[in-house]
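Dear colleague,

Following up on Tuesday's group meeting, I ran the structure prediction for the two-component complex that the binding team flagged. I've pasted the input sequences exactly as they went in, so you can double-check that nothing got truncated or mislabelled along the way. The structure tokens for the whole assembly follow below. Feel free to forward this to whoever is handling the docking comparison.

Inputs:
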Amino acid sequence: MNANVNVSQMGSGRLLAAYLGDIRFEFVKMLRTPAFALPTLLFPAMFYLLFGVLMGSVKGNAGQALYSLATLSVFGTMAPGLFGFGVSLAFEREYGLLVFKQALPMPPGAYLVARMSMAMIFASIISLLLIVLATSAGHVPLTFVQGAQIYLINVLGVLPFCALGLCVGAFVSGQAAPAIVNVIYLPMAFLSGLWVPLQFLPQLVQQFAPAWPAFHLAQLSLHALGMDSVGTLGSHVASLAGVTIVFFSIAMRRLSNGGLRMFGGATGARSRFPLQRLLARAIFFAGFGLIIAGVMGGSVKIAAVDAGGPVGAPAPQTAVIANFEDGTAKASYGLGWNDADDKTQGGDSSAAIRVIPDGAESSTGALEVTGTVRETAQHPFAGTAFWPKGSTDEGAFLDYSNKHTLKFFARGDGRQYTVVFLVGRKSGGIPPMFSFTAEAEWQEVRVELDTLAGMDLKRVRAILIGTRSPAGGFRFALDNVRLE
Amino acid sequence: MSHAPLASLSSVRKRFGKIAALDGLDLSVERGELLALLGPNGAGKSTAISLLLGLQRPDEGSATLFGQDPQQVEARRRIGIMMQEVALSPVMRPREFLTQIASYYPTPYEVQAVIKRLGLEPIADRTYKDLSGGQKRLAQFGMAIIGRPELLFLDEPSVGLDTNARAALWRVLRDLVHEGCSIVLTTHYLEEAEALADRVAVLAHGRLVAGGTVDEIRAHVSRKTITCRSSLANGDMKAWPEVLQMSEESGRQSFVTLDAEALLRRLLHADANVRDIEVKRAGLAEAFAEITSANQSEVKS
């Protein structure tokens, strides 16, 4: 329009560089603040090693390593947004930096964009760290798709916590902010079942869980990993979006009342348009609606999670399932041991069984399983299966609630093997599992049934023993299988 | 267009609760001048600046920056700012601050050039928390000029600087003005305004009470100071009607008066042996004190 305008135009390249420069600046700043960076980056990994790997391997519980990956990655996702916005904003508001930045020709929204990106970068580092730990130390058989899903959920999952942090930072003083943020962060993590699974927490805690965004994010992660999750996907996304909208709106309103315009421009004049105010209000209430929808969608299912339908027939008194002494793969009840693979799941793995002469404890028979795993199915599997009810039908359950420990002898090629229990009526989802390594010599494997995540002893359809990823040939043998 | 002021406030009123921070203020900054904004605490200097920066909006009247609303980022791309109380991140380094702020501007100076110009080399790569107060101010001054601003707002720029650093700062300010940059400066150091300012605006109670060149402001003031060595009794001299204030230091008397000629006549008449007579016009400090106190009494009455 006139000469004045031209000299102050910024090319889009320079503008982008300004946004990127702010992101880099913010990230470096946070990295150089050890009180923030160390706990934020390392606590989730530390907790994972403790809860997921150490406690999981003590119990031999593969489900634990998987469950902890889902929940602790959410724990890691909460911190960068809550602290990055909550504590820093409170300080910068109090000590004049926000006013200075506002007087500078900072591109609109750059302050928020930089911090949000910082939170996302931190979340992505944390989630990669956990994925690496889970697949290495935790022996979790994660597919690429599952890993990618967990990563995305975490990176996008910072948004509601950024909004919550923004709200804290907009209201409280710099001195009070760290305490307030911790009071939100730690209890919410606990009440959302991030440390202890919700089913072990009091009924009241379970009922209130859908009020917390961390609960919804954890359910999304659990779902992505194929584990038991409650509530519908829609309700989780709705709640997370709602929390983001509502707390962001409250924070923006508070900041602009204090004369701080996060998006530049002339907000003083802008908010005088009644239509715009109406729209802002509509968005705010829509956000509220989404949160309520999330609570409803989350709580409906939580009550239904225990109703598993009719239980199975009582299991026979005998502890012995099979010792292969008669030269066959027969069991003392049910269908005998058969080969099992992933062909019905669209896979291409294969397995064959035969009875061999030299068994464990100097016995004269054992079951040998050989085959090849190919990674075509989402969850590759090859091995052997035992159907205790004598049928592979959906509802063919046996009630094992009077048994506590599965024991058997195994030896093999040093590969990792897994005991998988098919329980209940549901298809899909990751079943209760237990991992062990088959060494060259016979060794006894004990599986404490009560400790397996997702176990439903009243409705056991099948016990599978075999191997999963990585691809390749395998050979192992079983003997003296007992359930006592 | 070429005569339009770079920044202006016209008939601006701004209240904070019951207190009128600005009460119909008119102020404009012309191209190439250094305007010093003077006034006691609470006079409205900071409010005036924050309206020009778009940090607040006037209740009445209007604030413009390069003919635009100061809240337009395009207008602010042509200014540089040094504020008084800003807690910058303690873990970052001056070079990093300069690089970041430079990225907000269309045609900033090279970061290294600013570092060199201000002699920041020894501190450019040290963390901010390890800098002295004066070094921090100098780094902040660098951040103010990095964007090659046409108009520079400096709030008490030399607070915390030692004599050398202040002299260096003044030199850079004079150079900038010489290069065509306009500067608005608030200061408590009157000698700073005297040394640098093309124009002075004195604010009190949210109003402009005096404006003009340093000389014009001084001319407003009729106060003069007479010093001499006299053998008369101090008590007698102090009682003379022309004397407003009197003091003595190592045998040398000093009088403040509104009527220097009458006082001189009386002095020469009373003491034939009076020696070393000197008459001085008031400095900006005296002028400032008189203008604001006169305004104060005017407000009271």
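Residues 222-281 of chain B form a domain with the Alpha-Beta Plaits fold (CATH 3.30.70.980).

Cheers,
M.
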